[in-house]
User: What shape does this take?
Amino acid sequence: MSLGPFSSQRFGYAVHSLCYLAKKPFGTVTTLPELADWLRSIWPQVSETYLGNVIQRMSRGGILRSHRGVSGGYSLARPAEQISMRDVVELLEGVSVDSCSLSLEGECPVRGLCAIQNKLARIEEEYLQSLGRLSIAELANDLRVKLATPKAAKGKGKTRATSKSR
Assistant: This one.
């Protein structure tokens, strides 16, 4: 494991999407196009298709809830205070302190006997524990977003600002 999850496009899309959803009342359904439009205010070249893959993965992983039908979309599966950055990293990046971050192969040839890996595993666990203490709600708290009003979600284009600056 490395700090790499913080630089992946998948992780960036996920965290920003979760923070956007956290700014809304819990259970509010948001469409993929609405999320993509908001993300384009940060990254103009956002791929709605790729974002859809990230969102679906979070839905299958229990972080988001999928709502089917004409007025379908996505909502947080649990309150933002209960979704940690560790949850997101483990789901999207597949990190595990059980795997050797130094091995060039699938498994470490000296598993458990390598002093270097033992130290790195402790550091990685501390890193994951610190991510476990940081919630999506905390990240979203200082984020300023323009949430689409119900009419904007249907293409009318009205938005309202919330909270502090990004």
